[in-house]
Write a structure and sequence with these properties.
Elements: H1 2-29, H2 37-43, H3 48-59, H4 63-80, H5 85-91, H6 97-108
Length: about 120
């Protein structure tokens, strides 16, 4: 009997790990798009609480923190490749300079221009 419970728990864990990986792939492939949590919930047929809970449990960061981190890593990469900030902003899903600039400084301390090649 205890083995059966363990297998069910392992199966359930695998199920949620797989779901989180699919969400992460979706984020990575759609960095320039609408990545609001409500959009992801609709896409993966999850309610907001469930997505927040499983994501935090599996990733040790919230969905929103993950999205911002991945967007900022992409932004830094593009800047180091020599892209202009005006190109990086839409490529990473930001709609305006001020929001992008605040997020970038929060993550890297310095403004985006500091990292441009």
């Amino acid at each position: 009997m205890p083995n059966r419970i363990f297998i069910q728990d392992a199966d359930e864990l695998l199920h949620w790990q797989t779901r989180v990986e699919k969400v992460k792939e979706y984020v990575f492939e759609n960095l320039a798009g609408d990545l609001r949590i409500t959009t992801a919930c609709k896409k993966f047929d999850l309610n907001k609480f469930t997505l927040q809970h499983i994501f935090k449990e599996q990733q040790k960061e919230t969905y929103c923190e993950y999205v911002e981190r991945i967007r900022m890593e992409k932004a830094l990469h593009l800047l180091k490749e020599g892209k202009w900030v005006k190109e990086v902003i839409p490529a990473t899903g930001y709609r305006n300079w001020s929001t992008f600039d605040r997020a970038f400084k929060r993550r890297y301390t310095y403004p985006p221009a500091f990292f441009k090649k």
